[in-house]
Amino acid sequence: MTTSTSLKPPAPVPPVDPAPRRRSMEGAAGKAFRWAATGAGALILVVLAAVALFLILRAWPAMTTRASVLSDEISWFPDGKNLLQFVGPLVFGTLLSATIALVISMPVSIGISLFISHYAPRRLANSLGYVIDLLAAIPSVVYGLWGGLWLVPLLSPVWTWLSDTLGFIPLFSGPASDPPRVILTVGIVLAVMILPIITAVCREVFLQVPKLHEEAALALGATRWEMVRMSVLPFGRPGIISAAMLGLGRALGETMAVLMILSPGALYSFALLKVGQHQTIAANIALQFPEADPLGVSTLIATGLALFVITLAVNMAARAIVARRKDFSGAN
Amino acid sequence: MTTLSAGSAAGGGLDPSESTRVMLAGTDRRRRVTDRMMTGLVYVAFGLALVPLISVSWTVIANGIERLTPYFLTVSMRGVFGGMDSGGIYHAIIGTLLITGLAAIISVPIGLLTAIYIAEYGRGRLARAVTFFVDVMTGIPSIVAGLFAYALFAVVFGPGVRFGVVGAVALSVLMIPVVVRSCEEMLRLVPNELREAAYALGVPKYLTIIKVVLRTAIAGLGTGIMLAVARVIGETAPLLITVGVIDSINFNVFQGRMMTLPVYVYRQYSQGLVPCNDPAAICIPTINYDRAWAAALTLILIVMLLNLAGRLITRLFAPKALR
């Protein structure tokens, strides 16, 4: 996986140091090559800045237009609300779906990574990791298709049962909608989609646990689970947190699965089993964009900007945790 | 708990008392049960992860195999309407290949050079910033990448801009960080002795990188690029908003909308069931879903083929030192 490098201890620095004579030998071609490489690196920063810049540029008209004009000109813009009030429920829906996905996939992912790193026979472990990576290779639109046509009918009786038995909890208050194109179904599909990234990061972290910690725990008479609980999990905690945030970041931005499964609405609602309550930013953009007029596009880009800021914050926090951990991992 | 039992175990060795023995026996069973239970849960977790994998592959294959015929692969959707038993994905395959190919042409040089910068030249603040933001960039939502490409081209071509290159730029934003990450990893695997040997012979650094480092890592680089292509070839949302949909074949990435495979799957799915009112005409109510499944199967086959090819390249061409 792409994430694996960031967790490994920094590779030994290649011994460059070409004596002064070598530098002069490098000549114009060498300099050009060096500048090309540096330029490409700098381009990454430029692109990221450009993403923010162009989004702001295009979102500007919507942000500066009065709310009444927005609702007059854009057919799907709710009456009597301003841009912030329009984005609010979308942000809520985005966070809610991602949170559900995270709650479902987190324990499973930790279980899988433990299985691969500490439980499965060594020879099996690698191919098992590959099998999980395959989940990441399946395009999101296929998950949407699978969720919409296969999972939705299957879940219908399950959700009905859930609302009948646990309906007293507001989250599951019934009656459950049929077909269940609801946020809980979306959460399950999103959980499957973010499983590989969380698993990959957790596995890397669990494999890094110093052997001595584990052996010390075992020598004290710990069972395998106690060893995991006392040495592996505490050591891996920062890694687990950052894995969760990476998964969260991915779930926040998933578009197709939400678009193809959820029956949208725009409410602040915790009714997980009812349709027409939630919508996410990404799915709303994909739904409205193809038919939107310039001001509508501008409004959608403004919501996209909100999504960009949220995911950027989540991802930067996750990466910062991983990066800080690097300093410690060399200590053993 | 363990400190306690370990302490008493040591004590028990010196002075075996009945109480210690009882305590050890008592806790042991509970601990053993917990251990067993957690082992079971870990196995269950792994089993749970296999359920979607198996069910996705099974449903896609079972529903898509029937319609995936040579005919389906070689015709477009031009003039197809209602429940007609015709139409195919030729135009979508063309679009996917052209746009993804273009995205690769943009991303590979930039990504490879950035990887070289990080692995070979990078030092100091800029290198740290680049490394960090490449990681952050992998987290950009695909739809935001699409919005960015749209916003970029809308500045030049005005609003409502939709053609292949816009989609390729959107895909590049998603692809570059993946290329950088995997290529950097491969460059770091090249043993330093090779670089040192080249320096010792008086080869300048840039030639060492081009002739020694890149050549040694070539198999890994190929794999990384393959995997990056596989990653973006299934992206739907950015293409939906930057390239749009069309029923006919369009070879020109600089003009007009194009169809791509993922968008085709979504489009067929969203059209839903066809109402068949005329019993005389040939009409298949589920035709749109059937086409969606078949196209999804094609897409998965392409992605898996790319993945497999990537892994095969490493297996076959990797220098012995790296195996």
UniProtKB/TrEMBL annotation, chain B:
Alphabetically list the UniProt keywords: Cell membrane, Membrane, Phosphate transport, Transmembrane, Transmembrane helix, Transport
Is-annotated flag, keyword Transmembrane?
yes
Per the record, the GO terms for biological process are: phosphate ion transmembrane transport
Q: Name one Pfam family in it.
A: BPD_transp_1
**Could you tell me which residue ranges the ABC transmembrane type-1 domain spans?**
93-310
Main subcellular localization, coarse class?
Answer: membrane
Q: How does it sit in the membrane?
A: Multi-pass membrane protein
GO MF terms, alphabetically ordered: phosphate transmembrane transporter activity
GO cellular component terms, alphabetically, are: plasma membrane
Where does the chain cross the membrane? 40-61, 89-118, 130-157, 163-180, 212-233, 292-313
Q: Where in the cell is it found?
A: Cell membrane
Q: Does the keyword Membrane apply?
A: yes
Write down the superkingdom of origin: Bacteria
Q: What does this protein do?
A: Part of the binding-protein-dependent transport system for phosphate; probably responsible for the translocation of the substrate across the membrane.
- What family is it from? Belongs to the binding-protein-dependent transport system permease family. CysTW subfamily.
**Identification of the protein by name:** Phosphate transport system permease protein PstA
